[in-house]
Design goal:
Blueprint (H helix, E strand, L loop, with lengths): L1 E3 L8 E3 L7 H10 L6 H11 L19 H9 L3 E5 L16 E12 L2 E16 L2 E4 L8 E4 L1 H12 L5 E7 H6 L5 E3 L19 E3 L12 H8 L3 E2 L5 E2 L10
Antiparallel strand pairs: 1-2, 3-8, 4-5, 4-8, 5-6, 6-7, 9-10, 11-12
Helix pairs in contact: 2-3
């Protein structure tokens, strides 16, 4: 675990390097830019999620880490945050980046023994965060944080990532933002005028519309319908939520 020297004059960027199968732990700490969680704390979350089992399904049997999405969600909740699964049918341009604290990617990786590639697959957690005015990839497998760029660069990067069927994206937001859905871009219909100054939408002036990729401007989409579309989370237990589209293979 190291603190990277990258960054501008305001200071370095906190970046933990990969140890064992603890990428979920590293992703959380890199996201919050501090050593906010320990392996022992994540293990305790696992025991809390499944207290009466011989083999805990949320972590490695060998005690190496390999934590699943349920552990990450509960850990985030202890910090007053929520993880929101991003529907890959959307365009990332629908995201209100100012309301999002960071991102966690779940990606497939390959096993290597030295330079030999083994026919085994595993999952890996990666944190993305805006630091000192720019977005960085804080992947614990990297030697140092990787600069992504400004907002447009991030949106392009996210779109490229979620085009893969094997990758999943989670938004990390405050509990208040999760409840109000402020992580979605909202626009007032009065802001959209044609060249003659006429409103594009024939709606009431105070109507708020959520931007959806692939929707033409003459399609009515009220807030309730949008909320129904976004309500993909179901209760897994008293402490955590998980999308029904996600399976237990989301581990590190």
């Amino acid at each position: 675990m190291v603190v990277s020297g990258q960054g501008d004059m305001t200071g370095p960027i906190y970046h933990e390097r990969q140890v064992k199968q603890l990428c979920a732990l590293h992703a959380l700490n890199n996201l919050f830019q501090e050593r906010g969680f320990s392996k022992q704390e994540l293990d305790q979350i696992c025991y809390g999620l499944s207290p009466d089992v011989w083999i805990n399904p949320h972590k490695s049997l060998l005690g190496l880490g390999n934590y699943d999405i349920n552990v990450i969600m509960v850990a985030l909740q202890t910090k007053g945050c929520e993880a929101i699964w991003f529907d890959k049918r959307r365009d990332p341009k629908c995201l209100c980046l100012d309301s999002i604290d960071g991102f966690i990617l779940n990606v497939p990786t390959e096993y290597k023994l030295g330079f030999v590639l083994l026919p085994l697959k595993k999952r890996h957690w990666i944190a993305l965060k805006k630091i000192q005015g720019a977005f960085y990839n804080l992947d614990s497998n990297l030697d140092s944080p990787q600069l992504i760029g400004k907002e447009d660069d991030l949106l392009t990067y996210l779109k490229d990532q979620i085009e893969s069927k094997d990758k999943e994206l989670f938004l990390v937001v405050s509990r208040e933002v999760a409840t109000s859905q402020e992580w979605l871009v909202k626009v007032n219909c009065n802001d959209f005028l044609d060249e003659s100054g006429e409103k594009i939408f024939s709606t009431d002036s105070d109507e708020i519309r959520y931007i959806e990729d692939g929707l033409s401007t003459d399609i009515e989409l009220d807030k309730k319908s949008q909320e129904d579309m976004d309500n993909d989370n179901v209760i897994v237990n008293d402490n955590t939520r998980k999308s029904p589209l996600l399976s237990n293979f989301f581990t590190s």
